[in-house]
Amino acid sequence: MKKNLAALTVLLMIATPMVAQASPESDLKEFRSHFTNMFPEVPVDDFINGVYSVDEASRAQWEDFEEFPPYEIYISKGEDLFNKKFANGKSFAHCFPDYRQGVRQNYPKFDTASGEVVTLEGDINKCLTDNGEKPYGWKKGKIAYVGAYLAYMSRGNKLDVNIPDDEAAMAAYNRGKKHFYAKRGQLNISCADCHYNNAGNRIRADILSPALGHPTGFPV
Ligand code: HEC
Questions:
Q1: What b/e sequence results for 142-153 when a residue is b if at least 16 CB atoms lie within 10 Å of its CB, and e otherwise?
Q2: Closest residue (by CA) to atom 26 of ligand 1?
């Protein structure tokens, strides 16, 4: 019995060293090829469309409602807020000078000075507080409208997440990676169980979207 346990330990040691060696670049390569092998008929650039990239009926519905997009009203609310002057006479454009060319594609990013991951929403609120304004609440309402406007202005740009060669940045990356693959909850499942291993399969009435391209469509 003891012998078997030792053999098992050796086996586990042989089976796991891949994890330590992985770099963001090799992770990306592996992640992409997992999905391009799973869905050889889907062009790699189309995964940004989430579940619509892998299910024709859902895609047809989406293309239909894009004719009269129900979200446009929120984008114009975001535009109004974006252009509204702060009490000090400045506006969001002072914090996001490149907003016309799009800024959403650069988030999330790592700020080496503070050692923190910075999100677009975090920078929206930082702009407010830096200018003596009250920050918005998180998740919905004004912050989502301004985020939607900035994301809309960034349509067509390629998401470009930079991970600086920095210990704290790599640690943040690895925490995110662990979060994605870690099993949790009463059902003991991970994000990856649904959006990596079972992409394209049904879970009751829902079709599980492939995780490749997931971050491009936000806010929703
Ligand atoms: C039990 C299966 C399951 C698990 C586990 C799960 N999801 Fe989902 N998720 C779904 C379903 C179903 C939807 C709605 C259909 C779709 O777009 O995939 C969804 C939607 C999403 C979307 C929106 C996709 C889009 O294009 O709008 C994202 C992003 C997402 N999940 C990320 C995650 C992350 C990150 C985790 C882990 C923290 C996770 N999911 C865990 C089932 C799951």
A1: ebbbbbbbbbbb
A2: 50
